[in-house]
Amino acid sequence: MRIQTLLAGAVAALALAGPALAQDVAITGGQVLTGTSVIENGTVVIRNGKIVSVGTGAAPAGLRVIDARGKIVTPGFVAVDSGLAGTEVGSVRGSNDLSNNANTLTAAFDLSYGLDPWSFTLPTARLGGVTRAVVTPQHAGSGGGHSHDDSDFAGAGHGGYQSPGLFAGQAAVIKLGGADILVKPRVAMVAPFGEAGKGVAGGARGAEFVLFKETMAETRLYARNKAAYDRAALRDLSLSRADLEALIPVANGSMPLIVTVNRASDIQQVLRLAREEGIKIILDGAAEGWLVADEIAAANVPVLLHPITNLPSNFEMRAARMQNAAALNAAGVVIAIKGNEGSAHRA
């Protein structure tokens, strides 16, 4: 299956302990699995934390050499839609920095400020070969590595730990080693659609789509008239200045919007919305994506999915099936596999 890494060009790195990633290193003598071939007695050269060559032969002079004879060397995994370094125990509010319960700050919520490089989740994930992660804020309906249940659906009126607004906030890319784990903040905006989205918009899908379009219109109005806004000469806008500033990259197409969506008809509506608004989107979940795989491929929209989601756990996943990933791949959709849902400790 063709699996491609998404978001911010996160570079595949070897599954070594964190400090080694920042050094100039040659790993020699191991069986190197590249993803497309097997190299016996291979040599992998890393400079400034990036893989610069994979092949055979002696290590370049001046590099620290790690003897990997008798071992298997593979690229590191990139965990997408992750809670790594943002929470220790999802059900304990004090340890959860992935969500913001204030309606006054939604799109501008930047989880990168709360990431913990000494989180116990990081060495656990490294043991499984994860070396990079895209950490995403929680919202009503969050999945992939976030712990939640129905009581967490803040937007549906139950309280809980998910961000209550139309936008959950901005994602970040991290590396899983060293004291400075942040690779790039604010790489994508996150928003729930479908059942989760209608909850935060007032209870109906139609309300969410109208609200989203109005939000994009207000963002563009603000971007064109900042001076008038500063003079209080612009009509009242529904979002704070911080949220409007955060949404400008989404509105102009320079920042992707990660859309949590599962029902096939919702996927169609989101694709149409993205086309009409001129925004870049990434589908997160897409449990019924196989039903509209050709449309997703034609729109050149990537998908983050859990490959074994095959139960109709709610009414927007009635057609979930194990072959979803294979069907999307066959249609030419770029996909990225999400990790274990429900636990940040399992990436």
Q: At the first level of CATH, what is the class of the largest domain?
A: Alpha Beta
| Helix/strand order, N-terminal first | HEEEEEEHEEEHHHHEHEHEHE
In total, the number of domains comes to: 2
| Extended strand count | 13
Walk me through the structure.
With 347 residues, the protein is an alpha/beta fold. It has 2 domains: 18-73, Roll (Urease, subunit C, domain 1); 77-346, TIM Barrel, CATH 3.20.20.140. 24% of the residues lie in helices and 22% in strands. The chain is built from 9 helices and 13 strands. It has helices at 18-21, 121-127, 194-201, 205-224, 226-230, 241-251, 264-277, 293-298, 324-331, and strands at residues 25-33, 38-47, 50-55, 64-67, 72-73, 77-82, 130-135, 169-175, 182-192, 257-261, 281-285, 303-305, 335-337. The strands form 2 sheets. Strands 6-7-8-9-10-11-12-13 form an 8-stranded mixed sheet. Strand 1 and strand 2 form a beta hairpin.
Which features characterize this protein?
2 domains; alpha/beta; Urease, subunit C, domain 1; disordered N terminus; 347 residues; TIM Barrel; 5-stranded mixed β-sheet; 9 helices
